[in-house]
Amino acid sequence: MAGSIEHPIALGADREQVSLPLLGSVHEWVVTVDHKRLGMMYIGGGLVFFVIAGLQAATIRLQLAIPEAGIVAPQVFNRLLTVHGTAMVFLVGMPVLTGFLNYLVPLMIGARDLAFPRLNAFGFWLWLFGSLLLYFSYIGGDGLYGAGSAPDVGWFAYAPLTERAFSRGNSTDYWILSILLTSVGSTATAINLLTSIFCMRCEGMTLRKMPVLVWLAAVVSFLMCVALPPLSAAQIMLLLDRFLGAHFFDTQAGGSAILWQHFFWIFGHPEVYILVFPAFAFANEIIPVFSRKVIFGYSVMVAASCAIAIISLSVWAHHMFSVGMAPAGNAFFAASTMLVSVPTGIKIFNWIGTMWGGKIRFRVPMLFSVAFLVQFLIAGLTGIMLGVAPFDWQLTDTYFVVAHFHYVLIGAIIFMIFAAIYYWFPKATGKMLSERLGKWHFWLFLIGFHMTFDTMHFAGMRGMPRRIYTYQPGRGLDTLNLIESVGVIFQAAGVLILLINVIRSIRSGEPAGDDPWDAWTLEWSTSSPPPEYNFATLPVVRSRRPLWDLKHPEDPDWKYE
Amino acid sequence: MMMKRWLLAIAAMMASATLAVANDWGMGDANSKIPPSSIFSPVSTPASDISTLAFFVLAITGAIFLIVGGLIVYSIVRFRARADDDGREPPQVYGSNPIEFAWTTVPIIIVFVLILITARTIYTVQAAARPPGAIAVRVIGHQWWWEFQYPELGIVTANELHVPLSDPKNPTPTFLVLESADVAHSFWVPRLAGKTDVIPNHKNTMWIDPHQAGTFLGQCAEFCGTEHAMMLLRVIVEPRGDFQKWAAAEKQAPVQDASVARGRALFESTACVSCHTIRGTQATGTFGPDLTHLMSRETLGAGVAMNTPEHLKIWVHDPEEMKPGALMPAMNLEQKDLDGLVAYLATLK
Ligand SMILES: [Cu+2]
């Protein structure tokens, strides 16, 4: 191959030989429409942003470690908290979770790809472009005026702080466009998943025989289709305000600040479930396999998820208990919020029911899953407290809320993402991750997580609002904040170990084999990593656990389902 | 090895954080004389209603945590795979309708109780009637300070809200109307009441009925821009007599002190007048806090600094030094003028 093209600039023939295969494989990844590659690109990209946004969080905690610290200027701090929040939701949570669904759904339903492979690639590149825009704002946000700046309006960007009068330059526009693009990408993925799930299941897989993960993927996709458009609409209205002199949210010209809040939270609350359902989905696969038992109450589990999805569309104003709604409004949203805890409780009980009577193997994915169970329980209970509207008048916009949603986003979602990484990494690469490093990762991260976020509840109840760049000494907040910051060191060490583990294992990990966990769903029936076409012959299933049926012909599942 | 180096780097950063501590302008000492603003030590009615409700909710959620958490711990201990496991799969249980029914019904009952007591507190707080002796205050949120107007008493002040102690036999609660001059803020004094947002183009109301005298700290709780963190406020609850004395003094125009006439002339001839009001002078600006009785306030700049002549001098010289981003420009006064001006401000008792 080398030397076949005459080039005016003399490139060493040997160098050309080295660079071309690399270029070739990069090219392969760029043009790919394979759901597995796109899934891994989503996850990889999301993890890169996870590290960046995590370092931003570490800077925030450094500034707050002691009162009146001067590590970063107020403006810089406000940008950090805005970009950290926005990135963790749209650049980390969404892509990593949809990445997993992208990877897993076709394998689990016994299909060769998603329904629209090119739409899938389109969604990914749109997401990547949107994501880069958010960080590019650090350079371009101020346009030609000055040094440039990132958005500093908070991740929910309350009006009218985002209007031209209060947000000059282009930082808010970057925020809008970045999220708008990633939302379009997510909607594309959602449509793709829905179509695939409803049209491309293998023979024998009726809706009632789909793995719970696939059910949840469908529910999530439905929520994405319903919840993202209000946000996009509001963002476009804000663009109209900012560039064309509209007055939707411009209070100085009679616009409504509260309208934005409604739009945002009509998106924002379901968004929480969009992020947490995939975490539930992972738990639904991992807990049974490591308990060696079939999931307890399959139909109830699915029904509860659908119930949560539906109810979650009618609870948004619990983010707005302090805006001065009428008592009837407050009571309604308090009631609907607490109602969510019923199906949520059912899920937790069913997971316990799954472990009950099992033979639990505490491999790394299961460790993360058990921590997830306890932490999600706590997050749910603090959620009930926040749903009690008068209690919320005290707690909202404080560190208690910060603690609550980090319990959901980290304690539940990130923990389950870690579990999923340890669980499916062998499938995707054919190599096992080190169990020893995994345990180090687990324990360090667990300790750090609890140091940082348990204490935040108390800071909030002692009057510490969120989003403050500093606090004064003498208010009883110093010790709590110091503990919170020290916890970051443990969490960061945990993540570092994960990265080392991944790199080591890709280089020289133990071979995994097709089915390292002795699991039951279809993805474990193909090779690791699976071939591009997933299955040489499309599978035919008779139950929810086709591999169980194969392994236990004397006692197959389909007899009981 | 890599981790060790990394830890060292973090330690070094922490150490530099300690060095980078800015001046707290006397606020640390002042704050430590005031108990922390815990929502569980209420001194006024809505806060005490909320705290009672909160304890009830904590008891219920605490019990749920113990039971469910206990079940999780029990099952992972009891059903862990043993070393001497025979390798056979455990019995597969696909579910149980009676059990599902039980753990659906019990939570529904608990939720129902919670909804009822929540609704009750919502209505007692939000639908409370206003007694005739109530004090009316108009609160206006500004980026990043608070304006307090007492329309019935003809008083305008900033950042420190004075209210009378309320006697249960003859209650004098304070009713606040909340408005914003710019972006959304939120008025929060944890020991007095829950927070209520302060939203432009939208009037909100709230009330407090304090039953203990003292100074209580609060602050803006809705992100409102650069100095959101330093939009502090304090509420001074004082016995009825003291409150009336304070109100009478605030109503007076400040005493004209001939010895600071030069400072006053300076004040009146600079841009100060376009942003600040001092009654009895040409200064009628409303963009910044009313300075008529500046020296009756304990703090400066919405609680960034104790109100002393030295701090005042630093503030007037360049507010950036205390509150970077504050919407008052540095006036670039010469030292002599600064001294004269601040000497005048120091007489505004
Ligand atoms: Cu504010």
Task: Give the gist of this structure.
The complex is a heterodimer of chains A (561) and B (349). Chain A has 561 residues and is an all-alpha fold.
Structural class of chain A: mainly alpha
Number of H- or I-type helical stretches of chain A: 15
Total helical elements of chain B: 9
Which CATH class of chain A?
Mainly Alpha
Q: Return residue spans of chain A where pLDDT drops below 50 for at least 5 consecutive residues.
A: 1-17
What fold name goes in the CATH topology slot of chain A?
Cytochrome C Oxidase, Chain A
Describe the structure.
The complex is a heterodimer of chains A (561) and B (349). With 561 residues, chain A is mainly α. Chain A has a single domain (8-538), classed as Cytochrome c oxidase-like, subunit I domain (Cytochrome C Oxidase, Chain A, Up-down Bundle), CATH 1.20.210. Chain A is 67% helix and 0% strand. Chain A has helices at residues 13-31, 35-64, 74-108, 117-140, 171-199, 212-244, 257-291, 298-312, 327-355, 364-387, 389-395, 399-429, 435-461, 478-508, 546-551. The N and C termini of chain B lie far apart (63 Å). In chain B, a hairpin with a 4-residue loop joins strand 11 and strand 12. Chain B contains 9 helices and 12 strands. Chain B has a domain at 253-345: Cupredoxins -  blue copper proteins (Immunoglobulin-like, Sandwich). The complex binds copper (II) ion (CU). Residues 141, 144, 185, 220, 222, 224, 228, 231 of chain B line the site of copper (II) ion (CU). The site of copper (II) ion has 8 residues of chain B, from loops.
